[in-house]
Amino acid sequence: MVRESGAVTVIDLGVLPSEEPGEPPARIDLLLWGRRLAAVFTVAAVLAGVTAAAPLPRHRLSTLAVLPSSAGVARVVDAGLVMVFENQRAVAYDPDGWRALWSVQGSAFVHAVAYQDLVLLFRGDAMNEPAAQRPEWARAVDRATGLLRWSSDRQVELQGDVMTVYVVADLEQRVEFHDPRTNELRWRLPSSLTWVSDQRRSALWRIAPDGALVEHDLLTGAVRRTERVRLPDKGENLNLRVARGALGIASFGERGYSEPTLWYDTTSLAGISGVGQWSWEHDCGRGLHCAYSLDGERVYLVDPATGAVIRSVADGRAFGSPLGLLVVGPQDSGTSFSLPTVGAVLDPSTAVQRADLKGWRVLGMDDSIVRVLAHYDVPHKLTYLAELTDREAVRLGPVPHLLRECTTAGRALVCATMAGDIVVLRIEQDRP
Predict the structure, then answer these.
(1) Which residues cross the membrane (predicted)?
(2) Cis status of the peptide bond prior to 260, with omega within 30 of 0
(3) CA distances, 13 to each of 24, 72, 298, 375, 415 (Å)
(4) Which one-letter DSSP state was computed for residue 127?
(5) Cα–Cα distance, 250 to 47 (Å, whole number)
(6) Can you tell me the distance from the alpha carbon of 10 to that of 98, in angstroms, rounded to the nearest whole number?
(7) Contact at 8 Å (CB) between 393 and 354?
(8) Cβ of 324: how many Cβ atoms within 10 Å?
(9) What is the pLDDT of residue 195?
């Protein structure tokens, strides 16, 4: 359907083919076929006695801003701050008006987290620099001004109100826990065979050199309890994993992990079954979580409240979305785009796979959820976009850019283009 509103023409593309699209069909053909299809569907609904659901409104895009950038990417920190990471600096923007607030010089920033009145900037390649240069892994700046508060030349992980600070690949396990606001030392991890933090219990678990399992308070380091539990017999090294209400201990060596993993209830430390215990899980859309086995080779859709398995996911990569699980198909050969390609959409309740989005590209993820897909018209330098909802993929129409990544900021898309700019697109409901 084509509808004209003022100077804006909105084209309902329907489902694009799996190949890169060419020019949109002429307006007269779309009108003709649109009327024919509408008549067919109306008659079919009457004959079947089915009342059709009200169609979702179509949306369109308008350009809010173009942010100058040097091959940058955008990351939404929260509702009031968006960071653009360029080659040699990070720039903070206010999404209400897209005004630049401040910038920080430095290379290879890839991530940012807001903490109280600070913004923590994290680098992605410091481990590749010569050790003698002591590169910065993280830098904390004032949220309002961008002025430096502190920096760290060690790996930093923010876990609630405490920071874990350590050296990557340090065999001596020199681990410290710092105050995120000041970077001041709170406590040091004693000598350990392995350790893992447990944010659900605000705890730190470790296995002491004598084999004892020790639980610490994550904020203060105070020892809560020390227990003797059975450890795996095989393997050269031990590894701790935290699941929902359980602690897993595995052994591994040159050939990987040895089975079985021994699981213990975190409250009683009694041995329990490993069924339903996951090494990692995250939101996967449709009210479900994606859960991963310890070796990372199995993926399950689980109920986040109980951990009950809804179904297992077929081998291959998959991404969560509001519409369903996106099963990633084989990468198209001979293309210059490296974005994952959708093979099918899996309905988690029925296991039925839809193929209508086959060939679309995953343009970005927000909190582990894919919300925007792309389809390219390379000859005309257009990118067709679709927003995923829990009912359908809403066609947003083409934009005059070849986009390489997008993230959502409210009802706006902040997208990096192949040309190196950052374009901000507003999603607007197309009123009849």
Answers:
(1) 37-56
(2) yes
(3) 8, 30, 37, 12, 22
(4) G
(5) 61
(6) 26
(7) no
(8) 25
(9) 93
Enumerate residues 6+ apart whose C-beta is below 8 A from 71. 86, 87, 416, 420
Number of helical (H) and strand (E) elements in the chain, helices listed first:
1, 38
CB 47 within 8 A of CB 40: no
End-to-end C-alpha distance for the chain, whole angstroms: 12
What gap in Å lies between CA 187 and CA 233, rounded to an integer?
Answer: 32
DSSP for 305-320, please give it.
Answer: TT--EEEEPPSS-EEB
State the Cα–Cα distance between residues 170 and 305, nearest whole angstrom: 37
The pLDDT tens digits of the residues spanning 128-151 come to 454 445 567 899 999 999 999 999
174 with 163: CB under 8 angstroms? no
What pLDDT digit, counting tens, does each position of 337-391 carry? 578 899 999 888 788 888 889 999 999 888 789 999 999 999 999 999 999 998 8
CA distance 106 to 140: 13
The Cα–Cα gap between 248 and 238 comes to 10
With beta carbons less than 8 A apart as the criterion, state whether 388 and 398 touch.
no
d(CA 279, CA 293): 6
pLDDT for the residue 226: 97
Instruction: Note the pLDDT tens digit of each residue in 176-229.
Output: 999 999 999 999 999 999 999 999 899 999 999 999 999 999 999 999 999 999
- Supply the pTM of this predicted model: 0.77
